Amino acid sequence: MSKILSIVERAYHGTLEEQDDTILWMSHILKNAGADISVLLRSNAVNYAVRGQDASGITIGGVPLSNPPKLDEDVQSLVGAGVDTYVVREDVEDRGINESELVEGITLVGRDGLADLFDAHDAIWHW
Amino acid sequence: MANYLLIESRDPFEYGDTRYMYDMAADLARKGNNVTLFLIQNGVLVTRPGVRSNPLNHLFQQGQDIRVFADEFSLRERGIPPTPLVGGVEVADVDFLVDLLAEEDTKALWH
Amino acid sequence: MATITIALMDPPYEAETTTTAMRIMDAAVRKGHQVNIFAYEGAVNLTMKDQEAHPNPVKGTTAEEEDHPSSSRFIAGLLATEQVDWINCGLCVDERGAGNWIDGARRGAPADFFAWTQESTNTLVIGTK
Description:
The structure holds three protein chains of three kinds. Chain A is an alpha/beta fold.
């Protein structure tokens, strides 16, 4: 089975459904289906790994969004499911995010380490 | 050593991190991989001579053995003559891109 | 001949990636390759059956004179070659009410995409930006 690196960089697709981000969701689905998949968060998607996100409280036209996305929990869930999950260290630092704010179990990788990470996988899915 | 096909559809004028793919191309080549960079859509905007702070020039200056192609249609669509392009860029079409995709053991990335 | 699997996310008429992806599909088919398409999120709208050509009021031309091909018309041509297998993500279809599509496309799930990737020569993921 090929080893897949799924790269997420576009972040916050909208808050209309619990499955945003849809690529995190798909990566988890594929892990459950038996895929050997890792996830790399880069660019703005590194913010998905920040603890304490809260997208609750949206009501539009009297219709509440009962199950908003919980992206930090989704990332934590990926880690818990055994998905090796990485964030790009410089992208974290550029955004003023402290390493201590990140969910547990996530691995920071420097930009100069990305080539090694690519080489360690058979396929790169750059969403 | 692996074959990498990096397809860059973005340009440095609209996006802030376009150096990313150029740096990846250089880093992967530096490790001994066989790297092809295929510019398409607005990715070809860097092929005009005279582009300021051109990430393509920065890539070439690193001296890595990387083949760089620009999609013929994307050039024509933007009124960019196929010659002269920034040194080292070759013109190709999607048929050629498909040939690259059809090669076994090639890691293809779209950005 | 190779088998190339492509994942798409953009809806029609929003991004050049849609056109590029269809150009790649066309080139692959002409070269005799098998092409698998997994349409995810907005890309499920590419195959909607009710797409219609429209006139161009700026030019004063009719729909017939414009002969404006829709994405589904292009894709129908690709599907007719029988070298293209097209799956629309079922959950994405449901939340968009996008279930009325052209003949040849079928409903599926990420697991189908994964299965394709394991048997393909290559996989190209084209996300949305």
